[in-house]
Structure formats: structure tokens, C-alpha cells
Amino acid sequence: MLDRLGGLKTAALSTAVGVLAAPLAMAGAPTVTSTFDSDLEGWSAVGFDIDFTVIPPSFTLTEVANTPDMVHDAGGGAFDGNPGGFARFTDVIEEPSSFANAPGDYLGDLSGYLGGTFSFEHRLFDEGSEAEGVAPYAIIFVSGDVNDLNAFGAVLPGPGLGDADTGWVTVSANLTDGGPGGLIPVSDIDLGVFDPSLDGLTAGGFGFSGDATFEEVMADVTQVLVAFELVDNNSTQTSESGGIDNVRLEAIPEPGSAALLGLAGLALLRRRRV
Fold it and tell me: Are 47 and 97 within 8 A, CB to CB?
């Protein structure tokens, strides 16, 4: 009888833990992913063009016209055993620098993701010829018009010359206002991120910056851009080729949820020992 009562109590407590866990798991913002298993999943390639003939400089995003620039590759995605594909970019134009442009699932009010992470896998398949430098990885969150520079971005170490086709690497940024691996105003980012030939220049150095705060930008994201064209090929059409896979936008766990579930688990363990 005691064993039976204990089993009933354990079952009841297990049900309570499950009921408790469900709303906790749902409380945070949902993880957004792109695995490119069967298609590009709404991603596109855009060019980031900087015009220094006007003061302050103008920043323009345009759809990349060359259809081979971004295509779906059906196999060979990131990591062994991945049955799906990935998004491949081939640089067949001289200008502008090109970025992967996220679909609507990654846009809008991202306040629920503050403190979380944005990550992807990248592989540089081919540097092309006449490579004169490689830009770092960049992830840019834009609010409104990109020319207003209401944008924050992360700059992360990229591959080096000679590192082509060495396999997939994980790139991850923290969705924080500054800090290690966090986001900073685009006006403070070295423009070498967008074009290695502009290394050492910043938009802020030309008196050009946005006026939105980090929280304001993340509350109304209109574009998310991931650096795709990394190699400076000396203005030649040399078919630099790279790929991205497994893009993830993740929130941090709800504060206290892990501790609360841990306490419930301890209580369950104690019941089982009685």
C-alpha cells in the first residue's frame, strides 16, 4: 500500500513538474532557425554600397542582380551527418560588398532576445584569385533605413588568407549592448568589415552616426545582415565562394526557471527515495 501511495505521489509530482515546466519553456522568445534543408528559406543576397562622393557618405542596400550570387546547395551542409543543404554565395561582381539578408522571421520587435545569441555556421570554399585581404565576420541589425545608421553590429574574427576550404566554423554574437562578442553602433565599426580596402575608416569618423539606442534598434529591426563576401579580390571577378548554414536566433532562458525546475526535480528525487 505504501509503495502504491508513493507511486501515486510521485506521479502527481511528476505531473506538477510537467505543468510547471510548460509555461516556463513557453515564456521566452522562440528560437528562430534556418537550416536550408530544401531551399533558401527566404534569405537573399544584398549589396552594401558606400558612396564617399557626398558628405556625409551615403549607405545603400541593393538586391544583388547576379542570380548565381546566392543559391541553395542541396548537400554537404555544416557538420557531418547533416542531411540537408546550405546557402552558397559566389562573388561574381566587383562591387558592392554583399551580405546575406534575413527573412521576416528574424525581423520586428526582438526585445525578447536581448542577452541571447545570434549564430551561424560558415565555410569559405574558395578565396578566388588575387586575394588581398579577408574581412572579419559581421552581423548587422538595422532599424529603419540603413542610411540613417540606426544599426548595431558585431564584428568577429574571420578566416585568414589560405584558410579556404578548411571546413565549417561556428560564428556567434551576443545580443548585448557592447561587451565581449556583443553589438556596437555601426558608426563605430571599421568599414573594412564591408570592404577590406576601407580598413581603418569609420562612418563616425566622417561625422555620420545614428541616434537610436541599442534597445530602440532591437525593438524595431527592419533588416538583419550577415557578411557573406569576405575576400578582397582586387576588384576582379574571381568567384570567391562561401556558404552559411544553421542560422539561429536564441533568447536566454527565463530568469529563475532553471532553478525552479531544479528544486522540483530534487523534490521528486526525495519522494522516490522514501
Answer: yes
